[in-house]
Design brief:
The chain has helices at about 1-5, 5-20, 40-45, 60-65, and strands spanning about 75-80, 90-95, 105-110, 115, 130, 135-145, 150-165, 165-180, 185-195, 200, 200-205, 205-210, 225, 230, 235-245, 255-265, 270-280, 285-290, 300-310, 315-325, 330-340. With about 350 residues, the chain is mainly beta.
Length: about 350
């Protein structure tokens, strides 16, 4: 069992080296499917994304799949983020308790941005036609306790990007652990996210008419050909986290958390967050700060609140909200609910 406890630490050390930067180059903006880096769930977002060691609800499938093993009941989550420039990020997930086998889950992530005008040099205001773009991920998760204090979980997902008549697709794997240490109940977590195949755009929009020998007359000058596009990695991310629950008074709890993140397409950064639970986990106040120490960071302060109804039969409903402050781009709002049954 001791080997299981140090598995997370080994995973951290190996992967920290495998996605390290070469010569100080950060590779900012060089990955595909960047929507996979956008936080999911108002609770986690309000805590500044410091959630890998806190993860104990259905949104754990995004942050750290090991966390779903701690759910004692089935849970359904829906969250929507009203992102910048009318972009919407929707997340729908469900986790099912399988008893001694562990817990399993399924999730769907969809980013949409509505129809856009097709413009050309001749018609800069639009041709009258439109096109659409979207990004999607379908994930399957499983997690279980390997020991009383050590959880291991994984999430495999199919990822797709569409723009007009072209698309890219790939497969990715997330692996996470949570270890409850003997030191005052502090939880230590590690997770690797979006370890997968490269993605490359293909489709009819890349179809062109090509003349392979423009200096030769009489041959076929209109041969179908395709532009060759480059392949790009997904936004691979390694996170290690710490979290601690502090009982203040009867029916009140304060959770403090911190995550250190090492991405393959930016500089390292730290997320900090906290949650104050009042009235026996009915009312929640949350705050955090994202992307500390990131070079040229855009994200910063996060705030949020939530309310969980008393148990009605076998059901609980939790309603949550999160606010994110961006340095230059404005504010972002996330709404969501959780149903436990």
């Amino acid at each position: 069992m001791h080997n299981f406890k140090i598995l997370g630490m080994i995973m951290v050390l190996v992967c920290w080296q495998s996605i390290g930067f070469a010569g100080g180059v950060t590779k900012t903006g060089t990955t595909a499917s960047k929507f996979l880096s956008m936080g999911i769930g108002p609770r986690a977002i309000a805590m500044g994304g410091a959630y890998t060691a806190v993860a104990n609800d259905a949104s754990s499938m995004y942050w750290n799949p090991a966390g779903i093993a701690s759910l004692k009941r089935n849970q359904l989550i829906f969250a929507q983020t009203n992102w910048l420039v009318d972009i919407k990020l929707n997340y729908l997930g469900a986790v099912f308790n399988l008893g001694d086998l562990g817990n399993a889950g399924i999730s769907i992530t969809a980013m949409s941005m509505g129809d856009m005008k097709i413009t050309t040099e001749v018609n800069p205001e639009g041709t009258g036609d439109t096109f659409s773009a979207g990004m999607y991920a379908l994930g399957f998760s499983f997690a279980r306790y390997l020991t009383q204090n050590f959880i291991l979980g994984a999430n495999i997902k199919y990822v797709r990007e569409d723009i007009s008549n072209s698309s890219a697709q790939g497969l990715a794997l997330d692996i996470g652990t949570i270890f409850t240490t003997p030191f005052y109940g502090i939880r230590f977590s590690s997770s690797i996210t979006n370890f997968g195949t490269k993605m490359r755009m293909t489709g009819d929009d890349l179809l062109i008419q090509h003349d392979p020998n423009p200096n030769v007359f009489g041959d076929n000058s209109n041969i179908n050909a395709y532009y060759q596009t480059d392949s790009y990695d997904m936004p691979l991310r390694l996170q290690i986290g710490l979290a601690k629950d502090i009982r203040i008074l009867e029916g009140q709890r304060l959770t403090l958390a911190a995550d250190a993140t090492h991405p393959n397409d930016n500089t390292e950064y730290v997320n900090l967050g906290g949650e104050l639970a009042l009235f026996h986990d009915m009312v929640f106040l949350r705050a955090g700060f994202k992307s500390l120490f990131m070079k040229d960071r855009e994200e910063g302060l996060t705030l949020g609140a939530g309310y969980r109804t008393p148990k009605i039969g076998n059901f609980n409903l939790a309603i949550d909200y999160a606010f994110q402050d961006f340095v230059h781009l404005g504010d972002v709002h996330t709404f969501g609910f959780l149903i436990s049954f």
